Fold:
Amino acid sequence: MTVTLAAPGALWLLLVVPIVWAALRFGRTNFNAKQRVLQAAVRSLLLALLVSALARPVVSTASSRQAIVYVVDVSHSIASRAIVEAAARIDALNAAAKPDAFRIVAFGSGTRVLDGTQALRAVASVDAAGEVDDIGRAGSDLERALSQARAELPPGHRARIVLFSDGHETSGDVHAAALRLAAEGVPVSVEPLEVRDLGDAWVDGIDVPDLVPAGGAAALTAIIGSQRDAADATIELRDAGRVLATARTALRAGSNEVPLGATFEAAGSHVVEVSLRVAGDPLAANNRLSREVLVQPRVKVLYVEGAPASATYLQGALDQGGFDVTVQPPSALPTGADALDAWDAVILSDVPRTAVPDAAMSALSAWVEREGGGVLVAGGESVFGENAESGPPGYRHTELERMLPVTFERKDEPDVALVIVLDKSWSMNGRVMELCKAAAQAAVDALTDRQTVGILTFDDRYAWDVTPRNVGQHRDEIRKAITAIQPGGDTLIYPAVEQAYLMLVKTKASAKHVVLLSDGRSYPDDYEGLVKKMVDAGITVSSIAVGPAADAALLSNIAKWGNGRPYVVQDASEVTQIFVKEARTAMSAFEEGEAIVPVVKARSVLSRVDLSDVPALRGRTAMVLKDTATEVLATRRDDPILAFWPFGLGRTAVFASDVKDRWAAAWVRWRGYGPFFSAVVRAVARQHLEPLSIELREGAVRNNARALGVAVEARDAAGRYRDLLQPVVHVQADDGAQVNVSARQVAPGRYEGTVIAIADRPLTISLAGMDPSTASPVRHIVPDLDAEYRLRPPDEALLRAVASATGGTFRPRAVDLTGQGRGDQRARRALWPVLVVTALGLWMADVWLRRIRLFEGRTA
Structure:
């Protein structure tokens, strides 16, 4: 039992009671002290009872009477057999729970209270295409059904609702109904109902990417539901009657995802339709579904590639992704921020530091920071290496490093073992030999003190002129050994390369690299098998073919098999630069000996890219992640591969490997190559703010009307908000009916309005009353009039949520319905009449105490 006060504010009047006791002290009556105290106590109690009566107390006691309302979904999606089984279940629950009152509410889009289970069975016997009075079996409104059930619960009873449904609503908002019942303490237990099994197939949904670019391939997915296996089904995607994509596939029972690649030429709002054709399909109403697709304008990209011959891979992938790509050499990189405004993103791929003027880097930085541009830097052999002539490390401590999410340094200087395998046959005699020795010395000078180097020379025999040793401790003696090399003999390559392999296998280093130089031809042998063993041992091989007599084909294959770089030179003076480059590459942008398998650190912008089969990379550039950067991909050693960083108004990113057929040779053949780099470039690209934009918020459908929230954002050409406008939201149905609603300003540049629109007609939303020079955006709403006939399995997740939110039970037993609940105290009785009658009795006692004397003895 509980007591509640309807007007608790009246209790403040209890402050009058102390006045009664104050009057006792200062009163001048001639009653004795005991009687005066008794009179004050009676008057205080009298006042307390009257004040309590004014507070209107109500006592609530647990009711012993129980009422159950059974809510049964009889819409067209429910199997007739399931409705009959629901009637039997109701009879069983009533027999076990023995409620004092019960009702049955049958519902579709409407409701009807039935007399009993026989009436429910009669509904089940009606043909699926028929209607039953005002029930409206062509839809399901769970909110209306639960509201009707609440109205049928008699007062003074322990209230219970049992919902029989498949959980699929075509109108209303079941969540709102569940919250109201939970607030009132009415538990809703649920029982799932089976849907009709017609052996039907239907279009269940259309999955659209978050960003659909104009002119680019968009990967839409048609969700096809089926109750049976089907060998041949045809799915078509149309836009305004034009076929965008067609797919033929077999269907399995359940949900099927069918990818449909489509290209939308124009930006803006498009209404697409997916249709299904399958042999023997019994129901045609559910074989079409339409929805709106918002197509974004094309993103303009400036692609600067240090190796122009390899630009076709990324350029082709971005073209297919809907980007306007301009490929230029590093020399064409703009040196002014204004010149960069023609693009939304800039890609620098394998561009050496010497090719980027300081003015170009400053322009890029200003453009990103102040204008919101985006920059992606991709790695390569030329990116982070040192300058062979001037010596300072590539982009270290430059403006480009300042705006990127990484610093161009090695986290831990790698231990490198470099072996130079040098041809010293007779053909190398003279100037060529001297240049090659000078090149080897330059390569040794490029190595740091911690590195290891070995010099192996060969003619028809091999010899270790310098066995692999630490450079810092033996730099001078290595120089002397190189100077002492003399030519002689014929050319025999295989034994020399094999000895380099046998030595490096025993050498401890994080990077092991061989540079092979020859100017002649050798005897055939199993070079491929040998080099593949070297790669398996973590050793990479580059080759240099000098002069026209060199076996360029063999040497190029050795470099290809060894994951190295092939060089073919006619002038031996070029060898020095190549040797130095190889030495520095081994230290910085080096292959790690084993395939670099990217590890996903955060899905971020790659949420729609399938990374389950991402191939390994064959190399990466050394770098250190900045503290506040977002790391998306990394190596197993936790070195960054892909990272993002906000910079001013824009965003920058770094991809540590290259984007072409060198380190990313497996990537350019990977089906995710295009989607991956499209997502990365789109994430950094400058965001264009449209002069006018429309956001829609669709409310629940009630009585064939929908509350449509419309938000409008207005900006000028510079992106600043436009205030004090008077936009008019124009909503037009396909039958010509129109509604105009003025939107009011709620924030800078933002205007909102609410339109009550018809729910069963396609709607077009545009703006009126604006500047005629600014074209109005257009949005579309396409209702699904056949939602009831998409025969999905019961939505048990929603039904369980309703039961959990209201305190009900999933698949209830009789004991679940008869137990006590938090909302069961329903018998209520007002206490104020009792208090008033008692106060009247005390008033009579007070009058009597003023007429007689108590507590006084007989006077003599």
About this structure: The longest helix spans residues 33-54.
